């Protein structure tokens, strides 16, 4: 959480600190990845990255903002 605060509050180092952040994705399972790793794995025609902030993966999955895809 200190790195997250630094990204927001430390304008001199925010770019360097942001590279240290890791994220859970819908495809990464329990593994967290960097934004650059996510971008490398994006589908060819994918233009946008959608995200949700939550205290846990379970909380994020239960959010009313998550669109449910039939069969998944």
UniProtKB/TrEMBL annotation:
UniProt GO molecular function: ATP binding; ATP hydrolysis activity; ATP-dependent protein folding chaperone; unfolded protein binding
Any Pfam family matching the protein: HSP90
InterPro entries with a match to the protein in the record: Hsp90_fam (IPR001404), Ribosomal_Su5_D2-typ_SF (IPR020568)
SUPFAM superfamilies the record matches: Ribosomal protein S5 domain 2-like
Signal peptide span: none
Assigned keywords, A-Z: Chaperone
Domain of life, source organism: Eukaryota
PANTHER family according to UniProt: HEAT SHOCK PROTEIN 90 FAMILY MEMBER
Similarity field: Belongs to the heat shock protein 90 family.
Protein name in UniProt: Uncharacterized protein
Organism name: Rotaria socialis
């Amino acid at each position: 959480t200190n790195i997250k605060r630094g990204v927001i509050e430390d304008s001199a180092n925010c770019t360097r600190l942001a590279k240290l952040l890791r994220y859970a994705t819908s495809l990464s399972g329990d593994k967290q990845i960097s934004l650059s790793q996510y971008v490398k794995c994006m589908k060819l025609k994918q233009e946008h990255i959608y995200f949700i902030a939550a205290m846990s993966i379970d909380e994020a999955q239960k959010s009313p903002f998550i669109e449910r895809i039939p069969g998944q």
